[in-house]
Amino acid sequence: MNITPRKDKDGKIISYQIRVFVGRNPVTNKQEFRSTTYKPNLNWSDRTIQRELEKFAAEFEYKCTHGAVLSKKEQKEQAKAKAEEERRRPTVKAYIETFLEQKSCELSFNSQLSYRNALKKFSEFESIGEKKVADVLPCDVKGFINHLQKGGYAISSVKTTFTILHLFFETAIQDGLIDISPMERIKPPKQSKDKMCEEKDKIKALSDKQLDTLSKALLEEKFEKRVLFVVMLDTGCRRGEIAALQWKNINLETGEIMVCQNMQYSKEKGGKYITTTKNRKNRKIVLTSSALTILKKWRGEQAEHAMALNIPCDYVFTNSTTGNPYHPGTISNWFNAFGEKAGITGVHPHLLRHTMASLAISNGADILSVSKRLGHSQVSTTLNIYSHATEEAERKTAEILEHTLYDNKQTG
Fold first, then answer.
1. What single-letter DSSP state applies at residue 11?
2. Alpha helices in 236-327 (DSSP H)
3. What are the pLDDT digits (tens) for 61-113?
4. Which of 135, 172, 276, 330 sits most deeply, having the most CB atoms within 10 A of its CB?
5. Which is nearest to 147 in space by CA: 133, 173, 126, 177?
């Protein structure tokens, strides 16, 4: 070990260079040294400076001989490796962008927005976004889920967010960022019993009286709106599916409709656009004869009107002056105004979907057929939503059995 003093222009010692031999380079066989600089407190006495210098030099030599001091080249390599490690250990906020980019081909535009909003809330909760993905703990996720539930979010929204987070961390595992997901030991959120009862008490379908009131009020509406009401009630289609329905998808001879696309709106995407159905599957629906009759009549009237104005009529429901397909919001606005005029608040397109399903199930239609008509991916979804209708169907089944097995029969 060599200790060399360094002086200023006046010849006063201001620092010491300490140089330690650490061996020879295994490739070049050249001697290798490690060096450092010791700057003493110039107010100390010479004796104190010497004592502290020897102490500092001894510690430095010990570190050098035990491989704790790196060469400049090794320091650069270490810094590079650390930077690479940091790159491979992104923050939650940074990885959200990577995740969304990966899923962009799998999700519809609106689903991407939903994912982004949910992950943004997660990122902003208690600055989780600044944490490394690998440092997120189960308690972080639990805290966020509890925050949503206490914040009055609907249980369906909380469950959706939980599913999105589950996929987020599963993707992080696939990308090699983490070995175990913080979601692994967290149970999905459940709805409280009070909330469940509250949901069951909500009207999910029009009552017979309400349906009769709307049917009578419908006679005062334009023929096109009457057709819209009948087709939506008959098919149980979502409003976007109806807005995207084209005549080429309807066989007016057999009454078969092929539901294969969905109309959506996004300001970010520049307005209306066509996408796939909710479960990305096409489905065939057979119209009732009454609905088919009114639809045929509408086809003739619409075609005649379009020809007079020289506008297209490819879609079943269009703007009367431009021939452009309905905006999904236009359908909702009309239903709301129509219901208010008839004295029934809260009328919306989905209410007709619920009404169709409830009427079909409670009157004996098999659940599988209704599920297919609705476009549900699983029959269990239909059963969960329309449990009230299946209970009514069970009561009617019991009445049929009573009539068939016991009426006018001697049972002993």
1. S
2. 239-243, 289-309
3. 999 888 888 877 777 877 776 766 666 689 999 999 999 999 988 888 888 88
4. 172
5. 126
pLDDT tens, residue by residue, 303-357: 999 999 999 999 999 999 999 999 999 999 999 999 999 999 989 999 999 999 8
Tell me which amino acid residue 387 is.
S
**Is residue 326 a contact partner of residue 317, using CB atoms and an 8 Å limit?**
yes
CA dist., res. 190 & res. 158, Å (int): 9
Please indicate, yes or no, whether the overall pTM of this predicted structure exceeds 0.85: no
Question: Is the separation of the CB atoms in 43 and 35 below 8 Å?
Answer: no
- Residue 187 DSSP symbol: P
Long-range interactions of 361-368: CB distance < 8 A, separation 24+: 361/386, 361/389, 361/390, 361/392, 361/393, 362/389, 362/390, 362/392, 362/393, 362/396, 363/393, 363/396, 364/393, 364/396, 364/397
**Residue 282 CB coordination number (10 Å):** 13
